[in-house]
Design goal:
By secondary structure, this protein is mainly α. The protein has a single domain (2-113), classed as Orthogonal Bundle (Helix Hairpins). Helices cover 90% and strands 0% of the residues. The protein has helices spanning 2-17, 19-38, 42-72, 78-113. One of its GO terms (molecular function) is kinase activity. This is Diacylglycerol kinase family protein.
């Protein structure tokens, strides 16, 4: 049971200390609100939920990479910068994929309301 609580502590720490994590959590909440409001299908909800999980997971890994690099060196080193940039890039790619998927799912519902 202790490993579970360690993991929860890591998630809470990231949410408290990382601005981008808070942004992703707010965006996730908005996705859920829109899904409820627009009454999306189960399959659409599963796709959206999968993207939410992927983006949050990658943001947690990005935070871990940043912390690890900072632990190893505080100097400005090209490899340290590349490690951080690549981890951030993974989050960006997933975030864009999530946004495009949400747009494709929500746009027909929103157009039907107009």
């Amino acid at each position: 049971m202790r490993p579970f609580w360690f993991a929860v502590q890591g998630i809470v720490h990231a949410a408290r200390t990382e601005r981008n994590m808070r942004i992703h959590l707010i965006a996730s909440l908005l996705v859920v609100v829109f899904a409820i409001w627009l009454d999306t299908t189960t399959m659409e909800n599963l796709l959206l939920f999968g993207w939410i999980i992927l983006v949050i997971s990658l943001e947690l890994l990005n935070t871990a990479v940043e912390r690890t690099v900072d632990l190893v060196t505080r100097d400005v080193r090209p490899l340290a910068k590349q490690a951080k940039d690549v981890a951030a890039g993974a989050v960006l790619v997933a975030s864009v994929g999530a946004a495009v998927t949400a747009l494709v799912i929500y746009l027909p519902y929103l157009l039907a309301l107009v």
